[in-house]
Amino acid sequence: MIYSIVRIRLVSLVIVATIAALATGCGDDEDDQNNGDPPPDDDPRTVLSDGEHFAVSWDGPDSPLPFQELFELSVDIMEAESRDLVGNADAEFRLRVADTTEGMPTQLTVDTAGDGTFTLQGLFFHVPRTWELRVDIDDGELTDRASFEFEAVGLYEGELPDDPTGRFSERDLRHIFQMSPAPPPPPDPTNAVADDDDAAHLGQFLFFDERFSEDGTVACASCHVPDHGFSDPETLSQGMGETGRRSMPALNATYHRWYFWDGRTDSQWSQALGPLESEVEHGITRTRLAHLIYEDDELKDAFESVFSALPELSDSSRFPDDARPVVDDPEHEHHQAWMSMSSDDQHAINEIFANFGKAVAAYQRRLIRNEAPFDDFVAALRDGDEEGLEVLSEQAIEGLELFVGDAECVDCHGGHQFSNFEFHNLGLEPRSWMPDDPDAGRSEGLHTVIDSDFSAHGPHSDAPDGEMAQLLSFLPEPDFHTDGRFKTPGLRNIAERAPYMHGGHVGNLNEVVEFYSDLQEDPVIGIRDPLLQQVNLSNSEVEAVVAFMESLTGAPLPDELIEAPDSPAP
Ligand code: HEC
Ligand code: HEC
Q: Is the shortest distance between the CB of 529 and ligand 2 below 6 Å?
């Protein structure tokens, strides 16, 4: 990551000072920037470099630029006077949240035809703030810098009603209307049965089925307890052993892009495969899982009617009882058994394994609770319904004001799931119950996600050329910028699922907000996110932010979604 610097050819010196151009019409005051000169030709997509040697222009998607989505830009470097392209220009490009060192979660790549034109790919904005593109130019004789600013991406664009509370700025309102109502989850093209009813029913059956574990006592639901927001009341979870991190909510997880605290899988179906073979969770193998389905007529029928006929698995010399790849222990008997299989048979087993994940994911896509008092409040705000506003207490409204304003929570917890779905290092110190080695978080996830057999671009994906597959090709190398980053959890239904943070560091929401307020802890790995600032809230302000978060608890799920069905087929 994360500074997203790309060097085309060697660039030497850099001259300072900034000329900013607003890429959107969202009206930032230009006085904030040290730009004396108006942009040439009144075109905000063209700026003069600081020393006025070059004119630089960009072209790309219409304003506002995409948010939470890959996009590309083209950049032309011209002589300032003649506006001729500078054929021998070298350039270094750097994108970051303006006034911070926070870069993109992707790695920028740059192509040039060597004629002064450049194509920038892999742009991805995850923070709804002003972003800055710096271009350091060297034409062999002169070095100079040009800068662009892209204003406030990712906020509500529509008409704003009058604010009957009189408490919110225009920007606050744009954040608030971006948070509600929540749309249905985005499609998952990597899973062809993601929205299939029979697959969801089958998946629900499997989610509660304890047979898929080493000793027949652990199911997904053991650590994703329906009445605890589909997470675990225990700080660390017990399966066949103890997990190294806290369980996460399966509720509303389907909105996410990366799964696990470190984002080590890129789809909800491939996520489900991890715990099955984890020695501390279900502790089974993919061949055993296939045999269990194969040997249960009812389950086999249900599975075959959603997917396709299972291969003949009864030959145990071809399909050992317990075989799986164990990459870090090639001597392991499961690994040896796996290596004894033909690659066609391995593929057949992997397909069954992946399909198990796809059915369970189809079920989890229905675990959504979005309709909370907060949503009623926003609807009332939109409609100018003053009585309707009373659904939130004064305290919760003050908390909302802080959340989108001075407490700066929205940088990471904005949008309808209160998450930017990306990774940040809060600098939490380890707790006594956590494993000894500092947890590298996203750096570990990056190592795993690219090479997985079950990734969005892999052989079991139903969209190997889709958007997720493309995003994978722009992931950065793990380094100290990615160390200690964890996924930003969504905050809907947060009050129901203490304790909090990746290691269950904090027992209640008051302490969470106090942590942010004082930032008394120091990172043991990586660097604290530059977006975090001590905000020094008073006790009553802390309580207000908590009251606001308590207003995010949605209406309960229907009973038929939170119990094990009687049979695997409807
Ligand atoms: C022994 C406890 C345990 C079991 C069993 C278990 N999980 Fe988890 N689950 C966890 C823990 C712990 C994490 C976080 C692990 C990490 O990030 O390293 C997690 C993470 C997740 C996430 C990620 C959510 C997100 O937002 O990224 C989902 C979804 C999930 N589990 C679903 C399942 C499913 C489906 C099953 C059954 C196939 C399952 N879990 C079995 C403990 C468990
Ligand atoms: C720089 C991004 C960022 C900002 C700003 C931020 N958070 Fe977070 N938040 C995160 C991340 C990342 C985590 C998970 C961290 C971990 O477990 O290491 C998190 C965790 C949480 C949790 C616990 C969620 C859970 O499921 O365990 C709550 C509650 C929370 N944040 C509320 C807030 C509030 C309130 C604010 C404003 C005062 C805020 N956050 C500001 C990124 C951020």
A: yes
Segment 16-74, tens digit of pLDDT: 222 222 232 233 333 333 344 444 455 679 999 999 999 999 999 987 899 999 999 99
* Fold assignment, 170-186+370-559: Cytochrome Bc1 Complex; Chain D, domain 2 (1.10.760)
**Nearest-angstrom CA–CA distance, 522 and 528:** 8
Mutate to test the pocket of ligand 1, among 246, 271, 279 (most ligand atoms within 8 A of CB): 271
Ligand 2 in contact with 483 (CB < 6 A)?
no
Helical ranges in 366-485 per DSSP H: 373-383, 394-404, 410-413, 442-451, 467-472
Residue to substitute in 188, 220, 235, 443 for testing ligand 1 pocket (most ligand atoms within 8 angstroms of CB): 220
Q: 264 burial class (0-12, 13-18, 19+ CB within 10 angstroms)? A: buried
Domain positions in the chain are 5-150, 170-186+370-559, 197-367
User: Would you say 201 and 568 are in contact if contact means Cβ atoms under 8 Å apart?
Assistant: yes
216 C-alpha to ligand 1 centroid (Å): 18
Class of domain 5-150: mainly beta
Q: How far is the CA of 101 from the centre of ligand 2 (A)?
A: 19
pLDDT in tens, 390-424: 999 999 999 999 999 999 999 999 999 999 999 99
How much distance in Å is there from the Cα of 242 to the middle of ligand 1?
A: 13
